[in-house]
Structure formats: structure tokens, C-alpha cells
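ok here's LuxR family two component transcriptional regulator:
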Amino acid sequence: MRIVIAEDDSLLREGLALLLRAESLDVVATTGNPAEFLDAVGEHKPDVAIVDVRMPPTHTDEGITAAVEARRRQPGIAVLVLSAYVEQAFATELLSGGASGLGYLLKERVGRVEEFLSALHRVADGGTAIDPEVVAQLLTRTRPDASLNRLSPRERDVLALMAEGLGNTAIAERLFVTEGAVHKHIRNIFAKLDLPPDDRADRRVTAVLRYLEDTQRRG
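and the structure:
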């Protein structure tokens, strides 16, 4: 796995590089601003980019803008975005259009090495990873709409873990249930959210989008 890091905090940037190299991952470049990051992507053609949301010069959304541009220039590059804060709009936008190979983690998650590496590999493999704290805050800031209110507490637990990007096996391990039970809960979620099988849409992504979009709208 070839990785480019874009982070203006030099301590965190080099710490990430050391951590990843210790795991035998190939960090091909570390950069401190969007322009250097895009140059590095063009030069090294990495598999994954780890990008800070807020970067120079204004420290607002330069990292997101650069990540979007990187994916335009190199379709298929996986992007794991790091942020110091929960930013609801980006968490919802992350899954728009059934996006794959995208992740959103709070920077504090980096210190939980096993979780961070798991999210990184999931994103590199084309999956989605959303920080559990983002999901938790979205859930507690609002009331569910009528369709989400049909879900049982356990089904909501499963949907929240789906929103983090976990697959059925990981959900089963987190909830201490069988994969069969998880599969049954997901079938129930699809039925209660009126999501019939449709080759044109990924029901799993659609369910998560409904969950995140509703919490953002009512937050």
C-alpha cells in the first residue's frame, strides 16, 4: 500500500509516517499544504491519501478541496480524511453517490492504533469508514424521522455500525451476536426503510445515507 500524507502539523505528520512505516506500509511522501499534496499524488500515484480537513492558507476546507481534486486527477485513489472536530456536512457528503474508498476519522482515533489501521485498510480496500464519535453525535443531536422510528433499538445499533463502515462480521463481533443475526437485522432495516432489492442502488449505502441525512437535517 503506497500512501501520501497531507498534514500541516509537522509532529502529527511525522508521527503518522513513523507509525505506518512500522507497520511495513509504504509512505511515499509527507506534505504540509494542498499544493505539495497534489504534486505528490501526481508524482507517486499512491493507493491511499491521508488528508487533514483544515490546511493552509485559511485552515477551513482546503484539505477536502484537495482530496476532491486528487480523486479527479487520479480516479480510484482512496482518501482517509482526518479532522480535529466533528463536521456534520462532510460526514454526510462522504457517502453521497455511494462513494467508496473514503473515510472520515477524528484525529484522536490515530492514537488507537488498531482501530486506525483497521479503518485505513478498510478504505484502501474500497470501503467506507466513519468515526464512531461522528455517528454518535449525529444520533444524539436529533430525533429520528417516522421511517427510522420503525427500527428497534438493536436495528438502530446495527445501522449506526453500518454508518461507521463496518461489515457484517465486524458488526457481529462488536455486538457479540452471530453473523446470521446481523444479516436478519439488516434485512429488517431494509424492509422498514422501504428499500427493496434494486440493482441500480446499494441498499446498504442508501440506508446509511437516510440515517445521516436525517440527523443532519434535524440537527
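+1. The mean pLDDT is 82.
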